[in-house]
Every structure is written in C-alpha cells, then in structure tokens.
Amino acid sequence: MPPRRAQPEPRPRRERRGTARTGVAGTRLRSPTLEVRLLDLSEGGLAVESNEALRIGARYRFTLEGEGAAGGESFVATVLWCRLHRTLPRSGGDVLPVYRAGLARAGAAEPTASSPRRR
Known about the structure:
Blueprint (H helix, E strand, L loop, with lengths): L20 E2 L4 E4 L6 E6 L2 E6 L8 E8 L7 E16 L5 E11 L14
Antiparallel strand pairs: 1-3, 2-5, 3-4, 4-7, 5-6, 6-7
C-alpha cells in the first residue's frame, strides 16, 4: 500500500463583506408587509429567512427591535438575491419552503458580491 500523502492545512476563508457583521441575538426584525427572521446584520445590509420568495430589486421597510436595536431603528432595504434554502415537511405531505435572501440597506455602499457563494 502506498504511503498516505499529508493533507494540506485548510486556508482561512476570506471575508467578502465590506462591513463587519453584528450579533443578532435578542434582535427582532419587523416589517408591515413581510414575515422574516433575521440571520445576519451589518451596517450595509442584512440576511433574512422567509417562507416566501423575495423579488430581486423589491424594497421593504423594516424596524429593528430588541436588545441589539438602537431604539426601534427603521430603514428601507433592497433585495439583492434570494434562493430556496430548504423545505420543511408539513402534515398531509405538503412542504413549507424556506428562502434565504440578502438585502442592502438604503444609503449603504454597493456590495461587492450580488449573490451568495455556493457551498
């Protein structure tokens, strides 16, 4: 049997975001037109989960509430990308779609990448 080759050390992943992410524990995201769950937040944008697909280019109004929020901060964000992340089984054989989307906050610098990296 030939000797095993040593595996190379994994390279650290390069951060592609232009701004640092902040913790979202204890922070809720509210919208008058959409039900979403906040995944990630930065000065320039946010990532959310929703059971409905968000239309690319659509604008939504949001309010941050909770521990990490600055007194109920409201802002408008534009959908940059949206993709089906997974499905959840429901009774009767139906499935519930779970979409993930990235949005840019109005007034923030344009992002360098317009879509998520495939894993």
